[in-house]
Design goal:
single chain; 531 residues; alpha+beta; Mutm (Fpg) Protein, Chain: A, domain 2; 11 helices; 25 strands; 18% helix
Length: 531
């Protein structure tokens, strides 16, 4: 983490950072970036005045360091950018104080619902949602760095403007609110890059995932929902409504965060309460035990839900959610399904612009284990099978022959983990699919003999015999044959010694990875042998 010294205006890197203040702001023209901050001309850039004002305020509050996203993130490094995006919420949460600089508030009037403060563009941006929620201490300033008020003192007004509950603003009580409610806070907000509408929510939901620009908003938001479901069985993630009347079949997952705009009053029903309710209103004919867990597959969603038959092949499925209402009534929430295959528990969501309020479900519903499919016929379909490819790379005979890994260069969307002397590589399937892409080039070196070899691994995604491929060369190749498909290869080292690389289906996965239907696993053995 890089912090800016408030006096020297120099960046310093920290593993265990000291106390610091943090800035929340709108990006404007001539922002001072990571590469600019140490240049003499930085002080003449328009964005420097904001940096100077932030540093002066931090010094007055007794802080030597500040964090400002514009100049403290090296955006030319994909690894640094991915780390920052995945860590951003934590950095705001750990800051001693956050300054929200509203440069479009020029007057000094008391803040109210019709004030310039309440109408500031700061409240319309995607990233500022987590910057509002995460810090325990947050103060607002106008364009002249005059204090407007704090998050606590302005909690009621902030709740009116943003929809975020006052409990969240005053006690940072985020965990008790449902997925649907949190999504509703982000509805209508905008980001410069479309994928950031999803990435700016990762911290709020306490999830991490690869950052892939060019993925598009729809695909990034889909991946976000999948990652959330891996950590939660809150079924309110399905309590969304499309903004227009549509009788066609829809996804079980929302396509856009704006689909949650009218879900702010949706509450998750805890598992113990859900089982208790189920015993009261679920038909005794059901032989399915009420459960809350569900799982995404390559074709949709496997889930256990209470169903109410309407007419023909149409049903209402009850979610483990209730709605808060001003009248004190708390109806359960249902979605409409249509059976898509005769004599099979396969359904698709229909009438996605409707959420059903069920006030008295007693005895009307029957629990069933069902599959809610993706609408394969629609152009909005996103391939899901084997969302991740995982390579378990085992180094054999390296130490005995004096070799160790000198360098590992990875694709931006690839994640590398070391397990002792072995390696786990994980890569998200690219969308749109490409014929072939490289995952990593691993360079091994023997300091005694000065021998070096490079193992390059990749995946053919769409070829008929697609899967991982390998190369072993003396140097990293400048170009990679797009049609390359090799599952075994070798390379001659010094007299009597070789390095061989082989690939086979399956892998030494952890228990968690074995449970995931999203990962396709392979074992890669890199073996040095001979005299």
């Amino acid at each position: 983490m890089h912090l800016l010294h408030t006096t020297a205006k120099k960046l310093e890197g920290f593993v265990d950072p000291p106390e610091y203040a943090i800035l929340s702001h709108r990006w404007r023209e001539e922002e001072v970036l990571f590469a600019d901050i140490h240049q003499q001309g930085a002080i003449h850039m328009k964005g420097y005045a904001k940096i100077r004002g932030c540093c002066e305020q931090a010094r007055r509050d007794g802080y030597q360091y500040v964090w400002i996203d514009a100049c403290c993130i090296d955006k030319n490094s994909s690894a640094a950018l991915a780390e920052a995006i995945n860590s951003m919420y934590m950095w705001y949460e750990n800051a001693q104080v956050c300054y929200a600089y509203l440069d479009d508030v020029t007057d000094n009037e008391d803040p109210g619902t019709e004030s310039a403060f309440a109408k500031s563009e700061w409240f319309t941006r995607g990233w500022t949602l987590q910057e509002l929620i995460a810090p325990s201490s947050l103060f607002f300033f106008d364009t002249h760095w005059r204090e407007i008020g704090s998050k606590i003192s302005l909690a009621r007004l902030l709740s009116f403007v943003t929809g975020v509950h006052t409990n969240v603003l005053t006690r940072v009580d985020v965990a008790s609110f449902s997925i649907a409610t949190k999504m509703s806070w982000a509805a209508g907000r905008k980001t410069t890059r479309p994928e950031d509408r999803a990435y700016s929510l990762m911290g709020i939901f306490k999830v991490h995932m690869p950052v892939i620009y060019g993925d598009g908003e729809k695909k990034a938001f889909f991946r976000l929902q999948l990652e959330i479901t891996r950590h939660s069985h809150d079924q309110s993630i399905f309590a969304w409504m499309a903004p227009h009347t549509d009788s066609t079949r829809s996804w079980p997952f929302a396509l856009w965060v704006d689909d949650f705009a009218k879900s702010s009053n949706v509450q998750d029903v805890p598992s113990d309460q859900w089982i208790h309710y189920s015993q009261q209103f679920i038909s005794q004919e059901s032989d399915v035990i009420p459960r809350l867990d569900f799982s995404a597959t390559n074709d949709g969603l496997d889930i256990s839900l209470p169903l109410l038959h309407l007419v023909d092949d149409k049903y209402i499925a009850l979610l483990s959610c209730r709605r808060r209402t001003s009248e004190g009534k708390r109806p359960f929430i249902g979605i409409r399904l249509q059976r898509s295959m005769p004599k099979a528990e396969r359904y698709e969501r229909i009438a996605a612009h409707i959420l059903e309020d069920i006030f008295d479900p007693a005895g009307k519903f029957t629990f069933k284990n069902i599959h809610i499919a993706f609408p394969l016929s629609e152009s909005t379909f996103i391939p899901f099978t084997h969302t991740f490819t995982v390579l378990f790379i085992q180094n054999i005979g390296m130490n005995e022959h004096g070799f160790s890994m000198m360098d590992a260069e990875m694709a931006p969307s690839c994640n590398l983990q070391r397990r002792d002397s072995n390696i786990v590589l994980k890569m998200l399937r690219p969308l749109p699919l490409v014929d072939s892409s490289w995952l990593a080039s691993l360079t091994y070196h023997n300091p005694t003999t000065e021998e070096k070899f490079v193992v390059t691994v990749g995946v053919s995604w769409v070829a008929p015999d697609g899967g991982p491929w390998v190369q072993v060369t003396s140097e990293k190749p400048h170009t990679i044959d797009e049609q390359l498909k090799v599952d075994w290869t070798s390379y001659q080292l010094s007299a009597g010694r070789k390095v061989a690389v082989s690939v086979k289906k399956g892998g030494n996965a952890s228990a968690r990875e074995k449970r995931s239907s999203m990962a396709e696993r392979y074992s890669v053995n890199i073996t040095v042998y001979g005299k």
